[in-house]
Predict the structure.
Amino acid sequence: MNSDFMKHIWYYCVSFVVASVCILLLFLVQGDKNMQIVIVLGLTLFYITWGLLHHAIHHNIPLKIVIEYVLIGSLGFILSLFLFNF
Amino acid sequence: MFSFLRHLFVPHHTNNHRPKVLHHQSLFVLVIALCIISVSSTLVRRDYPAVLSITADISAQELLTLTNKEREKEGLTPLRLNDQLSTAATLKADHMFTKNYWAHIAPDGTTPWLFIRNSGYEYLYAGENLARGFTTAPEVVTAWIHSPSHKENMLSPNYNEVGFAIKTGELTGSDTVLVVEMFGTKYIAQEQQPTTLGQTFPTPAIPRVSFEASVNPFNDEQRGAPEIVASLENRPLIDSKSTTRNIALFIFILFIGVLIIDAIVIGRKQVTRIVAHNIDHIIFLTALLIAGILIGKGVIL
């Protein structure tokens, strides 16, 4: 687990930084729900793209993995619509 | 029961070493179910607001009382509720809903002072506080008092009157409760000869606007008899805001927890699986959860 985590640390760091920037942006545009949806959608697309790129470089990329990222991304996006009261 | 919960939430040979809730079929069913809930709740909110809508209990009287309590602490005279300022606040709220903006100055350049003038209030000093997304008066006043610029308006000795508007509607893409607070002091020509008019709201460096040169934003219907909303008490059977928020919070926390358990258990057992990186999922879902917790409440301007 630890060696596997360290092997991918830079990917996770980039994800963490992008996620943190998105939280900051969401905070800055609070009150503008349309802009918040755009930012959440942007984060979701980044998460799917970055995850698949990560897999493609280090492993293979079967359809099962693609579906998993798309489903978790969709779940996160829809839950955000609920959480932010869009 | 225990084995069922383990099957759902913990990697085990019964679920092919992946919690059942993380299986594609489960995720797909959940996403579809949430889509259906989202669409149906929008329809119910539109057609049956008594059943499902935003719960709000805000009155002008309570806002006034709480504002004056804060002024009393500072040894200031209490503000009086003024109908003309309440009319101005209502006109501002209507303008914001009609033009769909969230700002002190409208996209077409209309300032709050125009609404005050059009309500018939000749001011010596005027100011404006805005709030949206709050459901009780104490929440609104607390948010304002914790913001230095809004607090300055509330505790300014320059004002002796105030007006409020509390309205619900769709603003910049979401149903919300909007509160407009207009402060003022009447200009009395015989007693006071001001060289400049004071106009403040919690944003720095406002441009001076010539009212005569401004475009009148009101249509004839609005100009005729604006509705003064002194209070808003909306108690539907189900509060849409807190219900959807709590559902989302529960599912977010559940999935983040299951992903963490999955990563730990599989890491210990050294089971080989073809799955995506759990840490990617955890970072993504946690970021959305933190953002939702931090900014899901009301905002002031």
Observations:
- The two ends of chain B are 51 Å apart (CA to CA).
- Residues 193-197, 203-229 of chain B have pLDDT under 50 and may be disordered.
